[in-house]
Amino acid sequence: ANPGLKRLRRELSALRTSDDKEISLTPEEDNIRRWVAWIAGPPSTPYEGRFFQMRIDVGQDYPISPPAIVFETKVFHPNVNFDTGEICLDILKKNWTPAWSLNSACRAIIALLAEPDVDSPWNCDAGNMIRAGDRIAFESTA
Fold this sequence. Notes:
This protein is an alpha+beta fold. It is built from four helices and four strands, in the order αββββααα. The chain is elongated.
């Protein structure tokens, strides 16, 4: 069998017993390579109290290669493309290792919401607001 599928089944059974309040991960009924994730906005951020939906597509060579994760919910954030929901995060690209899981990738995205990387902005407006020290404008827009 495909080692990636075995790995996804292991992750799924671990998630079934998890009591995580910040992350919900569910595969599509007939396709374990396509998942829906809900993450909670981190506390003390403009995203607190909100939930964000993401789509996860897992390629044939997972966990060697990272999954493709995009926001379905609109997010105003320097490292998220507002129109497409694409996320600029190094672990989803060159810094991915097979030690990461779908759950830990979601956790890294929550951390990114809490701590934007303004040096590699995808959404330049949001990045420029934070860089200019205009946290108030950023937080009211987010």
